[in-house]
Specification:
Layout lengths: L1 E23 L9 E11 L4 E6 L5 E6 L5 E14 L22 H11 L5 H13 L4 H15 L1 E2 L10 H7 L1 E2 L1 H14 L4 E8 L12 E8 L3 E6 L4 E2 L4 E7 L8 E6 L5 E12 L5
Parallel strand pairs: 6-7
Antiparallel strand pairs: 1-4, 1-5, 1-13, 1-14, 2-5, 3-4, 8-9, 8-12, 9-10, 10-11
């Protein structure tokens, strides 16, 4: 699938402010599952400097720093074209030692996965993980499918533009949450059974035939030995294939936020508005 994505984010301030350095995480990643063919970034006010860097999680991000002149607006516009490639999300074969939960990782791999394994202490996540492991007889792929469907069928989706994800226990008790809330719940249940998981920020295709309001999306990726990172979207109850476009991934949701930064003086109110358009493009046949 080929997509053109236009994402414009505007911060308006109640009085003039001086912008501190900002980090922008809105550049679609380019790897074996998707190719970034075009990407342009426009910022107002014009930064006095910017730097394209690769962060600790391997994400391509942009650092911006600004002039000292006060402004009452920050506008970040990004236009990108992406081609996705994973039409079959089940095109893998697990390593023989990774076909039963909990997975007994080799020490070297366990060390690499430490940030993604976390240390889930949420009793709700632990109980749900144990229930599903027993139901699926410890099969990792079946477990993930059941968990994805359990959250999708049990929880009502709501749009919550700002704020950190809720703790998984609150989301599951209320049976209600935004995409990032449902994703964190999914991740913590995975970690409670010893599956490495990370938070992904990106876009979901939706219905391209309708002029509907679009939103930034979130889902989880789970590391399966022999399969690598595989995406699961509990908001829509699906395994991630070629209709999702990933921006960044991190074991910690706050490091997948689209824009982070600061401004002064303190006490000034900021209002966030954004427009997001996703257009399907015709594929080139050679």
């Amino acid at each position: 699938m080929r997509y053109q994505i236009s994402h414009i984010t505007t911060y308006s301030y109640s009085q003039p402010v001086t912008l501190q350095p900002h980090i922008v995480r809105l550049r679609p990643r380019s790897d074996g599952t998707q190719s970034l063919t075009q990407c342009s970034l426009s910022v107002f006010p014009t930064p006095i400097g910017q730097s394209q860097i690769i962060d600790l999680d391997g994400n391509a991000i942009v650092n911006l720093w600004f002039p000292l002149e006060p402004t009452q607006q920050l506008k970040i516009s990004i236009l990108s074209q992406v081609e996705t490639h994973r039409s079959n999300p089940f095109d893998f074969l697990l390593h023989p030692w990774a076909t039963q939960l909990p997975i007994d990782y080799p020490q070297s791999l366990a060390t690499q996965l430490t940030p993604y394994l976390g240390q889930s202490l949420d009793p709700v996540a632990i109980e749900l993980a144990q229930q599903l492991s027993q139901k699926t007889q410890g099969n990792p792929v079946t477990f993930l499918g059941e968990l994805n469907q359990q959250i999708y069928q049990s929880c009502q989706y709501l749009i919550r533009e700002v704020g950190a994800p809720y703790p998984p226990g609150i989301t599951w008790k209320q049976k209600l949450g935004s995409c990032r809330d449902l994703t964190v719940l999914f991740m913590e249940v995975c970690r409670a059974i010893g599956l490495a998981a990370r938070f992904v920020s990106g876009y979901w295709e939706g219905d391209l035939t309708k002029q509907e309001e679009r939103h930034l999306h979130a889902w989880a990726e789970v590391y399966l030995p022999g399969a690598g990172w595989r995406g699961y979207d509990p908001t829509h109850g699906c395994v991630v294939g070629d209709r999702h476009v990933a921006l960044v991934a991190s074991p910690f949701p706050q490091y997948a936020a689209p824009v982070t930064g600061a401004y002064g003086p303190g006490g000034v109110q900021a209002t966030l508005k954004y427009t997001l358009a996703i257009q399907g493009l015709a594929s080139t046949v050679l």
